[in-house]
Amino acid sequence: MEWYNYLACFFAGAFLANFVPHFIHGISGNKFPSPFSKPPGKGLSSSTTNVVWGLFNLVIGFLLFNAGNISAVQPITWILVFAGVAAMSIMLSINFQKKDKE
After folding, report:
1. Residue among 73, 61, 69, 82 nearest 12 (CA)
2. For residue 59, what are the contacts with CB-CB under 8 A and spacing of at least 6?
3. What is the pLDDT of residue 57?
4. Buried residues in 86-95 as b, exposed as e (16+ CB within 10 A)
């Protein structure tokens, strides 16, 4: 595998992790921070904006997942997907813990 396949594995995990909070808040009808809010990532975006943003992350994550050639034959690919999920999840938890205090 090429180096960019490994990079695709990591970012597939990151995009798939970012899909979850935006989509869940969006389909629940809740406002939630997104890159399109004012200020970006701090203010609240509509539930529809979050559903669309979540679906965009899902599509990109799926495309990167396929580009990463993830396979049981090479467990490092799954480790990199998990590392992407973990990195994005930790970053989001730190960023969004302040959303109700502002």
Report:
1. 61
2. none
3. 98
4. eebbeebeee
Distances (CA, A) of 49 to 26, 67, 101: 7, 27, 22
Q: Left (φ > 0), alpha (ψ -120 to 50) or beta: where does 69 sit?
A: left
Instruction: Name the phi and psi angles at 59, rounded to 5.
Output: -65, -45
Alpha helices in the chain (DSSP H): 3-27, 47-67, 75-96
Angle value at C-alpha 102, between 97 and 29, nearest 5 degrees? 70
Q: How far is 25 from 46, CA to CA, in rounded Å?
A: 10
Please count the CA atoms within 13 angstroms of the CA of 78 that sit on its side-chain side: 5
Given pLDDT bands bounded at 50, 70 and 90, which one contains residue 101? low
Cβ–Cβ < 8 Å for 45, 31: yes
> Over pLDDT 70: what percentage of the chain?
96
